[in-house]
Every structure is written in structure tokens, then in C-alpha cells.
Amino acid sequence: MPFDIVIKNIRVVNHNKAFIADIGIKGEKIEKIGTITENAKEEISGEGKFAFPGIIDPHTHMGIPMMDTFSVDNFHTGTVAGARAGVTTIVDFTVQNPGDTLLSSFERRKHEARLSHVDFALHVNITEFYKGFLDDMVKVAEKGARSFKVFFAYSFRIPDDLFLRVQERAKEIGALILLHAENGSIIDFLMKRNIERGHLSPMYHGISRPVFTEEDAVMRAILITEYVKSSLYIVHMTSKRGVERVKEAKEIGVKVFAETCPQYLYFTEEAYKRPDGHYFIASPPLRKPEDVEYLWKAIKEGTIDTIGTDHAPFTKEQKDRYKDTFYKVPNGLSVIEFSMPSIFTKIIEKRLPLNIIPRTMSYNPARIFGLEGKGEIKEGNDADIVIIDPKYKKKVEPPYYSVSDISPFEGMTLRGIPQFVFLRGMYLIKDYLFMGHEVKGKYLEQKINL
Known about the structure:
8-stranded parallel β-sheet; alpha/beta; 9-stranded mixed β-sheet; Urease, subunit C, domain 1
């Protein structure tokens, strides 16, 4: 039988090596990598181009409640936008409404995700500590959702003693705990004080969430994780001081993983001084230039394991409603549409190794979250492949695939925009256009083994 698609003479860039080869796709799988002489129904020239494994975004928020509104992308529009950036898998989050069990929130979210054009897994948010929720962690894990997120910030933050019990349960059932690492008590106090003093401009979003609130939360969580001998994944890290604590923990054998996001690798707190500074409000906040540079250093060295987007998009109208009242602006940015291009562009500018992209945006997310058949261009794996022409450049400007009419990258010229994107051998992007209207994503059960 001929191959369905053969990509000829392309530079394959995996997490651990790069090489020139042909890639043969049959059905949903990568059938062969090497020299292919057999016939194919379709042949694509890879001359002068790169093939990356499909991007796995481990941190998205499609259509979630935030403040008095909702993030504007659902699983349809958000994954169309993500496909434009080479995203073939997302890991989104359940939403635990008042009275929800972990199981009911999981089932509802899985149903909502049927609109996805990319494959998906689900993290389970724990925001209500009802009697029996620790037992329900077992029930949800049996359905393949083995990552649970808790918060040290906001009104639904988890107390330290309960965090310890959650970590113990996660260890028992082979699950992974994700943490929003900010000291909520300090943040609440500083926000209240700034509001009382009339300090309401966007700059005070960051001033109310100083860097030590991240460092403190990271340290407490690591100490408890070390005691339990469990695992910890810290989402959207922003600061040198926080990541240094992760590095120290890794060096003594604590199983802790660090994630950062493109926005924290590009922008600093100076963005809050812009006339549209409220468009950049997300939590945690943007930091100082030295933090941005340290994050890149930590990525190069491997201290930071993954790059996710924390995609939580809003429109100008939603953000403008409270532009002079920082604490009411819905928290979140539209990032997924330019995730891989933004990182590819910076890597070229900084002359860093290209394997950073598949390592932090494909292989490590697949390994950490137990997504079998994903994360690497390898025979037998799903044919999730992104092809880019490194010479192609494009200015970021509306209209966007996302429902959001704001992009933090607007006006920038980016490289690494995918020419072709395949999900399990099916076209999502063909010659820079979305072609995956009939492609449906599959729910992925997590098989975590850390």
C-alpha cells in the first residue's frame, strides 16, 4: 500500500536531535522516517524547510468564567487559532462551578471540548473542598484525567494542610498536582491598600503582586512536595527568584516541573504604562527585564520544562470597560495563535538551539502529562507534524482566528508561522490556510509515569 503523504527531504527537528529525512504518513501514524522511494498519494517538498512535532499547549482556558465575563474563545475558535501556530494538542481545565463535584465538572468540560479541532486532555481544577473530594480525585483519574490544579491565590485558594493531603492522594493514584503559585493573602492585602489609596491604574496590578509572592508560594509548595515525595508542576512562572527556587529543588531531587509562557518571555512591566496597558493584565503579572532574560536562560539550561500559553482571550470591549480600575479588568491574554511563531522568532534572534521548541512545547508536555504517541516525530507516533519555511515572515495584525480582537504581539513581524500542520495525518493548515473544518479532536487519557 502506498503512503498517504510523503514529506521529502525535510529537516526534522526533535527534542534531542535534528536530521534530514523523508517522512511517510499512512493513516493517522508516522509509518517511516528515512529515505522513501515508495509511491505516495501526495508528496510535499521539504527542501529548505523544518518539520517539528505538533505543538502541545499544556495550559489553555477556552470559554471560562472570569470576573463578570467569559474568555471569548470556545474549543472551536480557540483551536482554530491554535492550529495557525502549529498546536495539535491542548490540555485545558475543568471549571468547578458552585456545587459541582470533580466528576461533574469533568464530564461537562469533556462535553464542551467536543468542538475541538485538535486532540485534547483535561486538567481538573479543585476550587471547592467539599466532603469526599479527595475520593473523587480517584474517580476522575480512572477516566484518564490525572492532573489536578490548585491555587495558592484567590478566594478559592487551598490551605497548606489540605495541599499536603492533595499531594498525598496524588502520589497514591499516580497523578500530578499543578499549582498557581502566588501568595494570595499578601496580594489581597496589597490590592486592598492600593484601592483605598486610589491607585487604580494598570501599573498597580503588578505592584499588588510583587515578585516575592511568587517566590514564597513556590518555596512552600516545594517543601511540602519534598516531604510527601510527590510531584509538582508550577504553571506560568514569571520571575528569576521563583525559578531559582525550582532549580535548587531539582538539584536535590525534588520532582518539580516549571512552565512559563510567551508573554513572560517578551514583555515587561513597562507594558502597563502604555495607553493600552490594561490589555496586558493577566495573573501573575509581567515582571522586570532581568526576569525575562533569566527565564530564557532557564529555558536554555532546562530548568524550565515547558512553554504553555495560558490562553485566556478577551476583547477590547471587555478590557476597556474597566481600563482605569486594574482589579476589575478580566485577567488573561490571547496568546495561542502566535505561540510557536513568537518562540521561534526569539530563538532565531537569540541564536539559541532550535530543539528548544520541540523540547519545551512538544516532548516535555507529552512526557509530563502522559500523552502517549505525542511529542516527537518518530515511527509509530501520531502524525502530528508542523512544517515551516524559516524564510517566511508575517506582520501580526487583525483580523485574527481568535474571537479576541487583541494580540499582545500586534505590530511585530514573526517567523516560524506554519505552512502545513497535520493532526494524525489530517490537514489542519495547508499553505497557511486553515483546512481542518471537518477534523475533530480526540480526548486523550493521561498515562502519567513520573
